[in-house]
């Protein structure tokens, strides 16, 4: 069997706010969970419009941020 890798893309903009409340906290908790579960076979790409704020989980080879700018 071929080595299978799952790449999951997530819109993380709701968590990347100055003061997370409500849905922002919910989204932030999901990102923290995804960070814990990321492995070489389960990778996460978090899409953001702005640079990640310091309280977001740190990037590693299986969990990373990608900047997406609107036109």
What this model shows, in words?
Strand 1 (6-11), helix 1 (23-37) and strand 2 form a beta-alpha-beta unit. The protein is globular. The longest helix has 15 residues, at 23-37. With 71 residues, the protein is α/β, with parallel strands linked by helices. The chain starts with 5 loop residues before the first strand and ends with a strand. Strands 1-2-3 form a three-stranded parallel sheet, with helices on one face. It contains one helix and three strands; from the N terminus they run E-H-E-E.
Record field, number of beta strands: 3
> Strand sequence of the main sheet, in spatial order?
1-2-3
Query: What structural class results from the helix and strand content?
Result: alpha/beta
Helix content: 10-25%
Q: Helix segment count?
A: 1
User: Which stretches are poorly predicted, pLDDT < 50 over at least 5 residues?
Assistant: none
The major pleated sheet works out as:
3 strands, parallel
**Average pLDDT for all residues:** 95
Radius of gyration, CA atoms, in whole angstroms: 13 Å
The sequence of SSEs as H and E is EHEE
Based on CA inertia axes, which overall geometry fits?
Answer: globular
Q: What proportion strand? A: 25-35%
């Amino acid at each position: 069997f071929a080595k299978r890798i799952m790449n999951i893309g997530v819109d993380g903009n709701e968590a990347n706010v100055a003061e997370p409340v409500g849905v922002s906290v919910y989204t932030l908790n999901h990102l923290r969970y995804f960070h814990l579960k990321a492995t070489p076979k389960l990778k996460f790409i978090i899409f953001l419009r702005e640079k990640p704020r310091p309280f977001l989980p740190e990037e590693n080879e299986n969990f990373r941020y990608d900047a997406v700018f609107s036109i």
